[in-house]
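Let's study a protein:

===
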Amino acid sequence: MPSIFTRIINGEIPCYKVAEDDAHIAFLDINPVAKGHTLVVPKREVSYLFDLDESEYIALQLFARKVAGALQQAIPCARIGEAVIGLEVPHTHIHLVPITVESDMNFSRKLSLPADEMKQIAEKISKAFTEL
């Protein structure tokens, strides 16, 4: 059964997409821990990050780095935090979270943002991504 991320990639479930290339997609987390919290996902469904082959792993990190650069431009923050937890969805993904203090990476706290605000945030990040 395809993961929820594969269903997003296939267009079966909508998302707030911020970036995409042939092998990866980045979209806003629908349960963000901070405004701009973005998930970076390989399009090939692999459950565990370290099961990616070396070239896929490097390509995913390079794509995440570019998305992080766009996030840094679009969302006021001191840094972009990165986390790989991988238990909630069996499809490799990287969490990119705009942070000012370490506690901004608290995954037990979730924000609820209206759809129009999520759309505006996604558009802002996407614009910054295309300008990099």
